[in-house]
Amino acid sequence: MSKPESAPLCGSFEECFRHFTARLNAHPEWVEALRSFVDVSSDTIQKWIQGRRPVGENSLRVQFFMRERGYRISELEALPEPIRESARLVAYRVLSMTDICKYVGYTEREKGTGNLHIVYRGERQVSAERLVMFAEVVEAYKAGLPPMPDITAPPTLTRVEEEPALAPSVTALPPMRPRSE
């Protein structure tokens, strides 16, 4: 993992997560902020510190929590912007994985949310048509997201003390019709 003095902490999710969790025991306030943002138990956080990795939607939430604290996670950075921003909608609970699947046309026949997890991990490309659908979802719901931090600034791990605000309820956002199957 590269860590130039004047650049953010960069690397794969595994590398960044290992770096981040190695510092959690020394900072209980970070543990509480992470627990609250991801909405998991303290036991789950301890399992992560001991080497387990978060999966599914929790993985997305942890990645965006870390991104706001100066980490540049290569898997997130490599995603096309509409896909990354739709993952951010999930991380901030503006939409669920099931909602995104409906809006971009993933059906149960296509393994729905399982397929979306693969896309968010960067292990599957999407068609140009589906990328437009992701962009439409983001455009319709981005008002529920907090502004993105400037991750070109030097990392300051003390920012973890600030608990990020969760997005407003999805009911306050404009409705979007799901794609028909």
Structural class: mainly alpha
- Measured between the Cα atoms of the first and last residue, the distance is 42 Å
How many H/I helical runs?
A: 9
> What Rg, in angstroms, do the CA atoms define?
16 Å
The main β sheet shows up as:
2 strands, parallel
Overall form: elongated
Beta-strand level of the residues, as a percent range?
A: under 5%
The average pLDDT is: 79
Architecture overview:
The chain has nine helices and two strands; from the N terminus they run βααααβααααα. With 181 residues, the protein is mainly alpha-helical. It has a two-stranded parallel ribbon with strand order 1-2. Helix 4 packs across helix 6 (81-91) and helix 6 (81-91) packs across helix 9 (128-141). The chain starts with 8 loop residues before the first strand and ends in a 40-residue tail after the last helix.
Describe the structure concisely for a colleague.
The chain is mainly α and 181 residues long.
Topology:
Layout: E1 9-11, H1 13-22, H2 28-38, H3 42-49, H4 56-67, E2 71-73, H5 74-78, H6 81-91, H7 97-104, H8 112-120, H9 128-141
Parallel strand pairs: 1-2
Helix pairs in contact: 4-6, 6-9
